[in-house]
Amino acid sequence: QVQLVESGGGLVQAGGSLRLSCAASGDIFFINVMSWHRQAPGKQRELVAAITSGGSTNYADSVKGRFAISRDSAKSTVYLQMNSLKPEDTAVYYCNVFKGSTGLDYWGQGTQVTVSS
Question: Is the confidence at residue 48, as pLDDT, over 90?
Answer without folding.
Answer: yes
